[in-house]
Each structure stands twice: as structure tokens, then as C-alpha cells.
Amino acid sequence: xxxxxxxxxxxxxxxxxxxxxxxxxxxxxxxxxxxxxxxxxxxxxxxxxxxxxxxxxxxxxxxxxxxxxxxxxxxxxxxxxxxxxxxxxxxxxxxxxxxxxxxxxxxxxxxxxxxxxxxxxxxxxxxxxxxxxxxxxx
Length: 138
Ligand SMILES: [Zn+2]
Ligand SMILES: [Zn+2]
Description:
138 residues, alpha+beta, seven-stranded antiparallel β-sheet, 3 helices, binds zinc ion
């Protein structure tokens, strides 16, 4: 598979001890495969914390799915102001370089404020799982 942004061949890396992702060595974005996301375990989590955080649909992007070449759809995850692009055929979604780290940083701040017991990596894992569920529902 090639990077949807810069066409460099993607390489596999193990992401935060959770799953294999296809990362671009050039622009450092990464592709999160829905098949891999399927294997994320669901974590018991406070639903209230996630209310109002659903994605809303953006416009169709210019990038193409590395798996099927369909035009990726842009979404925004409001809670973290996270933009991502997802394949309309449910192959996965793309995160630009540093977006995951920015989200983790926001989670760290929130965790500090409300003293969550769960680690930020675990929250991020849950977020990815939520995104997956949301995107595959549509
Ligand atoms: Zn790239
Ligand atoms: Zn696709």
C-alpha cells in the first residue's frame, strides 16, 4: 500500500503496543486498518465523558484509500478537534503526522483535570475503537 498523501510505500509498525499500523516513513502519517481496529479490546468506560464527541461529516477529501483507491471522506471528531479521513468502504482511516500525539496530549490534560484512573493510551485505544464503531455504522 502507498501513502494516500505522498505515495511513498507504507511500512508496518507496531503502534503503542496495540496493533500493527501502516505508517508513512516520509510524511509520518499512518493508516489505521479497520481489521486491526477490530482486534482492539473494548474498555469499560464512562459514557458521559464521550457524549457530544461524535464525528461530523466533512467534505470528500482529495486523498485515496491505499487499499481500494476510493476517495477518502473527511471527518472531524469534535472532542479532540481531530480530523481524519476514512475509506467509504470501511478499509480504515488515515491520521496525519502528529495528530495522534496531539490527541494524546489533550487526553493527558483532561486526565490531569479529572483524575482519571485509566491511562491516556487506554483512552486513546477506546477512542480509536469508538471511531471505528462510528465509521462502520455509517
Ligand atoms: Zn506520506
Ligand atoms: Zn478502501
